[in-house]
Amino acid sequence: MAFTVNIYYTGTDGNAKKFAEEMKASGLVEKIRAEKGNLRYEYFLPMDDPETVLLIDAWESQEALDFHHKSPMMKDIAALREKYRLKMRVQKFTELK
Fold this sequence. Notes:
Blueprint: E1 3-10, H1 15-25, H2 28-34, E2 38-44, E3 52-59, H3 62-69, H4 73-83, E4 87-94
Antiparallel strand pairs: 1-3, 1-4, 2-3
């Protein structure tokens, strides 16, 4: 069953935006988009909160996301999150049919 995960990355001094920019520049975004089962991986900037970036991440199945979470690139993502001292808030939405 397909689902979407919204991840809100929040920091200070523009660090959330810098994180998203480095994710894209490093090639990690394209690698994630190329993973089997990834349906969407996009960053957005909320208009009312300049210190937050929203990631909309959609997957075909929980198994596909679990495989992504076990991939070596997760260490790179975690290191970037730590580098920019970001906090995360996660929401998961399941597709209804």
